[in-house]
Amino acid sequence: MKNLLSILTLFISFAVCSAQQAEVPSMKYEDLEKRLEKENDKLLVVNFWATTCAPCVKELPHFMEVNDQHKNNPKFKMLLVSLDRLVDKERVIKFIKNKNIGAEVILLDDIKRMNTWIPRFEKNWDGNIPVTLFYKNGEKIHFNDGEMSKQDLEKTINDNLK
């Protein structure tokens, strides 16, 4: 019985770890834009955040719960875009592991040009985070500036996943 529990614990630990990213790719805005274009057949939820942003960290558990509910739906994808500095990449990876982040995470290494790319995502975005953008069939359908409640996140997804 003790061996069975040990094996079960090891299996559960492996399953949790394998659901998380071991590496976080870093990219420039143009690469992110191309990445988003590849998901044009889905409802795509793109959340801009940072490990040093308290409202971002506060809302992430809601995003993970909702992501877990929809992760097996081929018409749904959640992408978390970290705005942490490239030199803090290891901190982002550690954060992902510690917080059991199951959605895909990328690091946008393009802070110096943020005044160029922010308005390309959303003209009303003032640069503050968190920000969440929703795309359907390659078109932006919703912009949420600031922290997003679980209820608002679920409603926006459910209204547009039909």
Quick summary:
The chain is of the alpha/beta class. It is built from six helices and six strands; from the N terminus they run αβαβαβαβαββα. A six-stranded mixed sheet has the order 1-4-3-2-5-6.
Explain what the structure shows:
The chain has one domain: Glutaredoxin (3-Layer(aba) Sandwich), CATH 3.40.30.10. The chain is 44% helix and 21% strand. Strands 1-4-3-2-5-6 form a 6-stranded mixed sheet. It starts with a helix and ends with a helix. The N terminus is likely disordered. This is TlpA family protein disulfide reductase. Keywords: Redox-active center, Signal. InterPro entries: AhpC/TSA, Thioredoxin-like_sf, Thioredoxin_CS, Thioredoxin_domain, Thioredoxin_ResA/DsbE_sf. Pfam families: AhpC-TSA.
SSE topology sketch:
Layout: H1 2-18, E1 26-27, H2 29-37, E2 43-49, H3 54-70, E3 76-82, H4 89-98, E4 104-108, H5 114-121, E5 131-136, E6 139-145, H6 150-160
Parallel strand pairs: 1-4, 2-3, 3-4
Antiparallel strand pairs: 2-5, 5-6
Q: Return the average pLDDT rounded to an integer.
A: 88
CATH architecture: 3-Layer(aba) Sandwich
One letter per element, helices H and strands E, the order comes to HEHEHEHEHEEH
Strand content: 15-25%
Biggest beta-sheet profile:
6 strands, mixed
Question: Keywords, please?
Answer:
globular, alpha/beta, 162 residues, 21% strand, Glutaredoxin
